[in-house]
Amino acid sequence: MALKSYANEFVSFLNASTSPYLAVESIKKLLLSSNFTEISERSNWSTKVKKGQSYFVTRNGSSIIAFTVGANWKPGNSFSIVGCHTDSPTLRIKPISSNSSNGYIQVGVECYGGGIFHTFFDRSYGISGRVMINSNDKLIPKIIQINKPILNIPTLAIHLDRAVNQKFEFNKETHLLPIAGLENKAETLDQTKNSNNSKQDETSQGGCSDHEQGKLSDEEFHSLQTMVQRHNKLLIDLIAKECGCEVSAIEDFELILHDTNPSTIGGINDEFIFSGRLDNLTSCFCGSQALVRASKNIENESGIRLLACFDHEEIGSQSAQGADSNFIPAVVDRLSSILGTGEESIINKNHLYQSAAKSFFLSSDMAHGVHPNYALNYESKHKPGLNKGPVIKINANQRYATNSPGILLVKKCAELVKVPLQLFVVRNDSPCGSTIGPIVCSKLGIRCLDIGNPQLSMHSIRETCGTDDVASLVLLFESFWENFSRLEPTILVDAVE
């Protein structure tokens, strides 16, 4: 692919990846078309993973790890890892979302992550995510994306709040509530019926006697309210239509709101990308593209090249599929003992510890580009510009895990492909965000550097990044994977001569 085309390809990726589940599906599609083989955590990898081949594994459908085993791999050799995350701040439909007020159909939502939620007003939203469906007594996931603008969160007219431009304040529970339509008589009757059924179900859930429970047939008894009772029927009908199933087949869902205004290239000279979810689908896209490119040149590779895309970074990474889980340690542990010949060596922790000492984790999350209207909020010597290359992020208090040996390694990788780099620290009087870097490197005991492309409006519903930076990050990742095994032994820190 021509480097200039990466920005257009990235925009298509963004529009297709409106939830972590869809982001993983987009990455899977690319990997499967590039001779990667899907494997499961449930299977025995010793009979599946071989040298010179590429694989990927998912967890929860929202996190994915892909890797290429070098043709010369042996236990104790290095892992070169790029890590990022699939989630972004958003609004998620509540487990019981049915609401109505003053003739409006409303949908209850829950705030996810640290979004700039005032930017979420006056936007038209579709919904996307995962629906669990009962199909022939098996519960299977259906990943959906409804791009129809069905929801909106309207602001209050300035005529009714003259101070709105002075400081826009709102209550996340009562004011950040989308409207989905207008009620009509038929629906009102239907909701009344559902409400009555709901009361009956609540009685059955509220500790009634065995005799009272016995009055309900198997078809009538539900341990939880049905989906139609928990959510507006019109919404459930729409979801069922998208899934291609009956309403009764829907058992549960995890759905989020996404802005239906599509991601796009903009600016006078097409120098910008305007979109939500740049943080951190940029790294997911660039990492997957670079790994595919690097997987075509492994005949002399002695290490394992690995990409990890985690869910739940925006809420602390503490989940079964987050960076603070055992997902990447488990994968590294399994691979560290595989010979790649269809056999598995005797479990030898020395192999794992040897690999950890030789390995490196490149934690890629977005960085703060300098904002022209708020330049005083940046440290005077550290003002990253858009389209000026990836940003190495440094923090003395280890909010970022960067140190000098890591900077030298990435600098050498960048020089080989002529990618410019920038440096960033926050002001001493400013808070500093963190990434998955400190989490993963402390769990694995490997060296790490934090890096990412610069952007504006991080955590807004509409962010901005540079078009040229997309190709730069792809090239940097590709150079990291292709040159790490050769460069790593030349950077001596704890090595004994």
From TrEMBL:
<dbReference type="InterPro" id="IPR001948">
    <property type="entry name" value="Peptidase_M18"/>
</dbReference>
<keyword id="KW-0862">Zinc</keyword>
<keyword id="KW-0479">Metal-binding</keyword>
<comment type="similarity">
    <text>Belongs to the peptidase M18 family.</text>
</comment>
<feature type="region of interest" description="Disordered">
    <location>
        <begin position="192"/>
        <end position="214"/>
    </location>
</feature>
<keyword id="KW-0645">Protease</keyword>
<dbReference type="GO" id="GO:0000328">
    <property type="term" value="C:fungal-type vacuole lumen"/>
</dbReference>
<keyword id="KW-0031">Aminopeptidase</keyword>
<protein>
    <recommendedName>
        <fullName>aspartyl aminopeptidase</fullName>
        <ecNumber>3.4.11.21</ecNumber>
    </recommendedName>
</protein>
<dbReference type="GO" id="GO:0006508">
    <property type="term" value="P:proteolysis"/>
</dbReference>
<dbReference type="Pfam" id="PF02127">
    <property type="entry name" value="Peptidase_M18"/>
</dbReference>
<keyword id="KW-0482">Metalloprotease</keyword>
<dbReference type="InterPro" id="IPR023358">
    <property type="entry name" value="Peptidase_M18_dom2"/>
</dbReference>
<dbReference type="GO" id="GO:0070006">
    <property type="term" value="F:metalloaminopeptidase activity"/>
</dbReference>
<feature type="compositionally biased region" description="Polar residues">
    <location>
        <begin position="192"/>
        <end position="207"/>
    </location>
</feature>
<dbReference type="GO" id="GO:0008270">
    <property type="term" value="F:zinc ion binding"/>
</dbReference>
<keyword id="KW-0378">Hydrolase</keyword>
